[in-house]
Amino acid sequence: MKNLKSKLNLMSTVLLILSVFxxxxxxxxxSNKKQEDNKEELKEEMQDVQDExxxxxxxxxxxxxxxxxxVIADFNSKIENLKSDIESGNQKLNAESEKKLEALKEQKMKxxxxxxxxxxxxxDSWDSFKVELEHDVKxxxxxxxxxxxxxx
Length: 152
Known about the structure:
Helix content: over 70%
Distance between the termini: 121 Å
Radius of gyration: 36 Å
Order of helices and strands: HHH
Largest sheet: none
Number of helices: 3
Number of strands: 0
């Protein structure tokens, strides 16, 4: 009888150990599944953030492009008016003003080139490119203003 009790105790202990082992395994499997699910959710969220960031960059690029095109269009309009005034004899440009006008035209060409380069910018290079381009546009705008104020 004592032997039977000892076997029963042993069997109970083994059964208890197996139960604990099974519960641990199931728990670990659930934990692994949860980890996999969490990884997938994290990947999806990261992709969503990356997509949103890309959309923001595209929007910024479009706004900057529109702004630059407006500045260039304004410059072109002012140049046409200046040409018209020169042809009608209402205005003359001295040699220094002619050089400044050519420099403005070169700045305009460089801005157009930068507009083309804008398409090639990556998310990593966009911020520095944007700062540089905004600076160039500001300088161009100031140069236009100065030129036409001095040549009225």
